[in-house]
Amino acid sequence: MNKSEFVDLVKQVGEYETKKEAEKAISAFVAAIEKALSKKDGSVELVGFGKFETVLQKGKEGTVPGTNKKYKTKDKFVPKFKAGKGLKDAVAAAKK
Question: Residues 31-42: pLDDT tens digits?
Answer without folding.
Answer: 999 999 999 888
